[in-house]
Amino acid sequence: MTTDRKKLLRLNRRAPGNDGCIDLLDCFLGFPSCDHPNSPLIPDRSETATAREGRKGIPAAAVEEGAMMGRQARKWMVLMATVWIQAFTGTNFDFSAYSSDLKAAMGISQVQLNYLATASDLGKALGWSSGLALLYLPLPFVLLLAAAVGFGAYGAQWLLITHRISLPYFPVFLLCLLAGCSICWFNTVCFVLCVRNFPVNRSLALSLTTSFNGVSASLYTLVVNAVGGSCSVYLLLNATLPLLVSTIALLPIVRQPPAHLLLLAPADSARHDSYIFLLLNILAFVTGLYLLFLNSISSVSSTARLLLAGAVLLLLLPLCVPGVICARDWARRTLFSSSLFSFIGVEDHELQKQLVQSSEDDIDDGVNNGDAFSVNDGNDDCSHGENGRRSCWWWWRCWCWDRLAALGDEHTATRLVSRIDFWLYYVSYFCGATVGLVYSNNLGQIAQSMGRESQTTMLVTVYSSCSFFGRLVSAAPDFLRGKINFARTGWLAVAVVPMPLAFFLLAEVGDTHALLAGTALIALSSGFIFAAAVSITSELFGPNSLGVNHNILITNIPLGSLLYGLLAALIYDANGKSMVPLVLGDGMVLCMGRKCYAKTFLWWACITLVGLASSLALYLRTRAIYVQPARMPAAEEGAQSETLD
């Protein structure tokens, strides 16, 4: 155990008179413990652990473990707050639910409507500003600022669509831009909270919280059905609910434990946290099934209210999981220490605990120092010199030149954009998940052109729920680590495969079942990519630069939204104008029939094939740097067993 670690432990011990029950309460509620060195409850450093134990009758180990559990519980409260923020801030997924009403209220064409959808995605191009804001402003202030911007942007659009105000086209374009920017700020705040509070299991935390961003449209649909409102209510909810949830989430966020004290976690905390994440993912899966299958019967207001209450209960239920597990561990450790270690003496137990802890810390420092893992083991194709494939200059140029050397290596923005691997990553995202997002923006017009306008809400729910499942499945590489050694970039390539298949299906078959199946496949694929991309960005280009680097990556979203959406709008208007009776007098063009989007689906299918090829190239270039982390748990266990022997 290092000197700094011992110093932190001494500073963090409880005051006399604390009987350990407070730690159990902290574990359930996540209230702050006396962690700060200036706290008046911290005892005099000159007072030894043995003297305090004699006065209290409680082993010092139990006191220290209770303090640690209090901090651990508060990080789970922060995670639950992040889940709620993500669940109610995915407001870009319900655009297709009110886009037709917005188009009619403004009297604009399909191309102009596409520009508004592009403006919402263009706000993500300004997402890097949230990373800069977090460098100079407190995180709670950035969260409230994002909520305030979203409230103003969506609130003004609601006033417009309900004919309470009248605005020209350009101010509405700016409002959509601000709304998209607020979503990106919410996401950045959530990413930073996960990275700060879960430095070891951050990929699990990111995939879990990001997945709930996909259920926003389903939750909003339940609320709209519960109040019996029109499609304009979506905009009102987009304005108010994120502000309300962000205000409630401030309490656990401002009480989050300091980052340096999270390093005092027990040796088995990573495995313990993985167990909790598994239970939370199971609860999330149940929540997704609930919203997917029961949302279809929520057309009646009374039924929708009951289903909404059940959905809120399911969102509250994860709060109990960390509390119950921490309480169980607290009771087990306290009873165990008081019954067994009273025979061997507290000082011997302390010595044994320090020896085991120090050995595990040394192993962690040696294997996982700075989250960077080198791959100079000579097991890849680029390390064999002239005797291997490197003898072919074109092979070396494609797969070996300027290749990443380690996971977790921090990249500045300048270094990031000079990397070949980043641009392969950029193209795979641009020609993959972004196409799925543009499809969701056009879902209202697609349903209308196929004569299924009444099923738009159901299609939005299917896309939202399946996007949620795709995001949730992105945690599979972390749970399968050690069993299936497959690079996360390889999982990214696998996730792109269903997308071209879905678009070819939509282009060839135009019935309801094909529309539902295609929507589900596209949502699953794009949802997986959206969630996995956060972890991939952190692994390939450094966790500390995630806030800026990931926002640079998603600048492809507004670009793709403009190009792919414009392609769809031009084909739509061209087909609509050929149908003279359906050209309206106010400039609106209404296209009916499967051919309105058939050619668009073929174009999108070919584009996603390019994304698949790019993701495969990224996997081939980065698979070697994932080898050593995949072997790390086995090496860890072997080293630990040798130390204990």
From TrEMBL:
Chain segments annotated as transmembrane: 134-156, 168-193, 205-227, 233-254, 275-294, 306-327, 422-440, 489-507, 513-541, 553-572, 601-620
Gene3D superfamilies per UniProt: MFS general substrate transporter like domains
The entry's keywords: Membrane, Transmembrane, Transmembrane helix
Annotated Gene Ontology cellular component terms: membrane
Protein name according to UniProt: Nodulin-like
Nodulin-like domain sequence ranges: 75-322
Entry keyword Membrane: yes
Keyword Transmembrane among record annotations: yes
Every NFD4 C-terminal domain range: 414-626
